[in-house]
Each structure stands twice: as structure tokens, then as C-alpha cells.
């Protein structure tokens, strides 16, 4: 094949999304994976609202939503009694077009992404393994090996390691991967079940020394169960579904009709010391792994891929200096560290054993959770956190200014009105300017001459509700985050932003 601009190692969701976004921007890619086919089982289930918003930019969201199962609410059960019930639509309906958790198992998700990539003319090269690579000035040279032993050389401008927690790319770079492994063994089971909790919602149940989370998807009462294995007396590899504790499962009133598959695993919490070394990048699980609390792992990897994709495209098209690529690590590494710290605390709370921990889980947590579920601000904060709508880059070199409640580095807030919304414009995957009210004539002239799309929306009360300022200019990045918020709506502010960073649209 012709020389790719980017060699992507690993065809999980992260690698596939990176390939999709680069291909959509006209960047030649090559994506390889040492496995012969996508996995048939998976632990990653949840597709969060922010991921779906980004998928909408490639007209992919509708297909993913149609294939998955919307879980519109979460329930907390303590000792067989439902203590908290929160509907996502009540707290997220004004924040995103996707106010729910979409349950779409990773194996199915991968197949859909690979099929979409194939329609764009790129196929995954399976049974093809990276064995080594070197960086040679303005390109990398990678050694690849096929299953039959044939070895080939691939030359590319950049290399992206999307090859999971055991990343060979990270190992070859010598990048640190600090953290550790939790003592507890977890299980995941794909089951067909019936009972009161098989109602299309998320359920988390605590019993003394036991807990389980249930996620519904598909037809016929199909669901995934995730829990911890207590009092492990034999190796995890030999355990079966019958060996695990069933108190929490029974407290949900579940009857398991069939176990389709069952797997155990250990949970790691690690973050790479660097995401970029020269022309090589770490993306997704190759850069960070953490507990499954909140369904953040796969979504974080997808967010990494999209953050990196538009920056690579800008550099390869000579619309930005290579220093732009440093902002990938500057933005995504601090977020990964915060995420690991947060999920670590929650994970430790969930899994700590002993009478004191049981008392807190069974008595104190229900009271706090019940109170929090009634407070609108708390509910919105939790939804924004879990859905990843709250991710922002306030300290990024690409973030500047403030207008209304919106600062540079914030996600552009979603605003809907009769007949449309402001996210429809983001499908361009390009720099663009948003004005809510009336754009200055000089700004309109500059956007036209600079070929930067100007989206000028008549002022509505909904804009004020979203924290936007009337007549201000918001320079929106290709990934939907605000680069510059300028209260004065001035063309000079926008042009100065591009000039200071060596960028062009």
C-alpha cells in the first residue's frame, strides 16, 4: 500500500476511532492488530454522552444508539431495598442530546466501528504485529510481522500506540507506567435473566461483603453483571459463575436463566509518564488504565483519539507547527491522572472489606446518596462527571479568554431550540466561530476572508441559560471545545489567537 501518514497499532475502539477521524480529515492511515479477529467478549459496556456527541460529528451517533440499549436511570439497592432512583433525563435533558448511559458491549462496538471504517476505504490488517520501530528525523520506520512469519517494513510520519495496557509501543519507548494492581479479583458475566431489576436501567446492589452492578442490553433479558469475588480460595482462572457470592444478585430479585460467558480479571491503576515521545504517541489503555467505576475507560480512550486526530491532521496539512502535538499530552494526561485518582477512591470504598466498611456502605452511604439525589446541583455535577461533559482544558496552551460563563478550554455547551441545535455545525470537524446574537461586521469579513465558518445564531433565552454571552465570539476547535472566548466579539482577538500559535484554519 502507499505510505501512510499515521501507523496505528491496535484496532480496539481507540485505534478504530483514531483511524476514522483521521480518514475523515483526508489523512492516509494504516491500522494493524495482531489478533485474527475482534474479541467476542468484553468488559467495557458504557458509551457516555460526550462520546456520542463526538460520534455525531461523523454521523456515527445514530447508528451506535440504534445498536445499543439506552439505560435511562440508575438505581441503588441496599439490603434488598431500592434506596435511590435517579433518571438521567431529569438532570441531563438540557445538557446533551444523549441524557442516558448507552450500554453497547465493546465487542459489538468494535465491529460497528470497523465496518464504518471499511466503508471509508480502510480495512484493519489483522494478524499483523509490530515488533520494533525507530524514529528517523521526520518519520518512523516500523518492523511488522505477519502470522505466517513474513516481515515487512512500514514507513510513516507518525505512530500511534493504541495497543492496550500491555503496550509494546510504550515498552519500546521506555515510558514509565506508574501505579499498581488491586488485590481483589473481579468477575464479569453475560447472562440472560428475569426479575424486577431487568427493566432496562442500571442497578447497583450492596449486601454485606458483596455487591453487583447490572447493565441491561439486548433482547430476552440479556444483561452484564459485574462484581467482586470475596474470600477467593482458588485461582481466578478456575472459578465459575457458581463459585461467586450471590447475595447481592439475589437481593435484586434476579433469576439467572443462562450464563452465556463468565470471566475474571484483576484491575490495574496506572498512568504513563508521557503521552508523546517524538513522533510516537500513546493513546487509550496504552496510556492509562483504571478501575471500571463509572464506565470511563473506553470513553477516555476514545476522547484521547479524537483529541489527537485533529491535531495530527492540522500538522500533516501544514496548518499548524509540530508543537501543537505537545498539547495532546498537556490536555489529556492531567485528566487521566484526576480520573485514576477519583476512580481509585470510589473503587477502594466499594471493595474494602470489614465490619466498618460494611456499616458505612449499608447505612451511611444510602442516606448521603438519597440526599444528594434530591439536590439538583449535586445531580447535575454527578451527571456531568460520569457522562464526561465536564471535561475541560483550562490550563491548555490552546485555551484563552472568557465570555459569560464559558472559558477557553470548556466544551461548547449544547443549546437546542425548535427546529435545531448548535451542535449541527460541528459536523464540519474544523475551526469555526459561534456568535449568539449579532456578529460584528469586521468579524464576518475576517471569517469570510480566512475561510473560517461563522455560525451566527439569533439570540434566544436558551443561550443565556447555557451561560453564553450575547454578541460574544466563541472560537470552537475541531473537537467541539472552545479555544477562545472573546466577550467583545472582535476579529482581532480571533486573528491574534491563530497568529500567536502559528495556526491556520
From TrEMBL:
Pfam families for this protein: FAD_binding_3
UniProt cross-references to InterPro entries, sorted A to Z: FAD-bd, FAD/NAD-bd_sf, RIFMO-like
Name this protein carries in UniProt: FAD-dependent monooxygenase
Cofactor(s) annotated in UniProt: FAD
SUPFAM superfamilies: FAD/NAD(P)-binding domain
Organism: Pseudaminobacter soli (ex Zhang et al. 2022)
The organism's taxonomic lineage, starting at the top: Bacteria, Pseudomonadati, Pseudomonadota, Alphaproteobacteria, Hyphomicrobiales
Organism superkingdom: Bacteria
Residue ranges occupied by any FAD-binding domain in the UniProt entry: 5-342
Keywords, ordered alphabetically: FAD, Flavoprotein, Monooxygenase, Oxidoreductase
Gene Ontology MF term list: FAD binding; oxidoreductase activity, acting on paired donors, with incorporation or reduction of molecular oxygen, NAD(P)H as one donor, and incorporation of one atom of oxygen
